[in-house]
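4.2 Preliminary Data

To establish feasibility before requesting continued support, the project team ran the inverse folding procedure on a target of 273 residues. The structure was first converted into the token representation described in Section 3, and no sequence information of any kind was made available to the design step. The complete token record follows.
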């Protein structure tokens, strides 16, 4: 019985090893057109566009799975699939550059995670548009992912996006609870709209209505998991500028604290706020 079980496991193990080798060899790099992190930073600074970012959580929802802070919703999955391939002027769509492109400087924990992303790579290659130039979705959490990177330049660029801006931040109730260094201190004004930390899509219409009631001249920043993608898209269609900033506030805080990144700290970083 044990031998049979081992034999049944061999094909999957071999597949994972081959797939990981293909990834590390860079053979996926030309499958989807994705900006590098540095190209993405410069793009976000140069162009005042709305943007939303797709990571492993959004892929899970689109594949019919629950995630820690959002249970599966068929309507949400449908909207995410549509937005992933949206060709809207003034709206940038992000997917993870490092999912398909092996990069130098990743910490060992993120590198191991990326090697195991066969399912996500397969989904991206088969569902992302070949006609879109995507930005890097990982640009909002580089301090967690890299141990070799010009973080000083990175955060100077990212902070320049917010400096002097009037912002509406739409986020879960506890997002700012453990933040010591608030990246939004460089903003002119910040209006906070606190929403449920889990399953925000269940009250999406309420969220959209509240955001639309704010000053249309303000930039909307969203930290709402998969719901943020739908919100950014719908606000963009209403003529608003909206940014899906994901974990950026926590990443900036970690950088300013000079936090030592470990496997445990990364796990805690990505837990629901």
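Position-by-position output of the design step:
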């Amino acid at each position: 019985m044990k031998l049979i079980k081992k034999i049944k496991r061999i094909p999957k193990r071999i597949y994972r090893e081959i797939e990981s080798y293909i990834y590390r060899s860079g053979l996926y790099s030309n499958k989807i057109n994705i900006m590098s992190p540095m190209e993405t930073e410069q793009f976000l600074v140069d162009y005042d566009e709305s943007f939303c970012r797709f990571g492993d959580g959004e892929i899970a929802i689109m594949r019919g799975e629950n995630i820690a802070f959002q249970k599966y919703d068929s309507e949400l999955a449908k909207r995410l699939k549509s937005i992933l391939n949206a060709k809207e002027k003034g709206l940038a769509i992000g997917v993870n550059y490092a999912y398909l492109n092996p990069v130098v400087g990743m910490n060992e924990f993120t590198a191991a995670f990326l090697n195991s992303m066969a399912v996500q790579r397969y989904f991206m290659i088969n569902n992302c548009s070949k006609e879109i130039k995507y930005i890097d979705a990982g640009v909002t959490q580089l301090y967690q992912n890299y141990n070799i990177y010009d973080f000083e330049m990175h955060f100077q660029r990212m902070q320049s996006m917010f400096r002097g801006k009037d912002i509406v931040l739409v986020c879960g109730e506890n997002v700012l609870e453990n933040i010591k260094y608030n990246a939004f201190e460089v903003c002119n004004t910040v209006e906070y709209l606190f929403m449920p930390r889990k399953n925000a899509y269940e009250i999406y219409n309420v969220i959209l209505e509240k955001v639309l009631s704010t000053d249309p001249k303000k930039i909307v920043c969203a930290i709402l998991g998969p719901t943020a993608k739908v919100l950014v898209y719908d606000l963009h269609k209403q003529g608003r500028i909206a940014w899906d900033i994901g974990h950026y506030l926590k990443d900036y805080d970690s950088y300013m604290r000079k936090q030592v990144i470990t496997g445990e700290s990364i796990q805690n970083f990505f837990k629901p706020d």
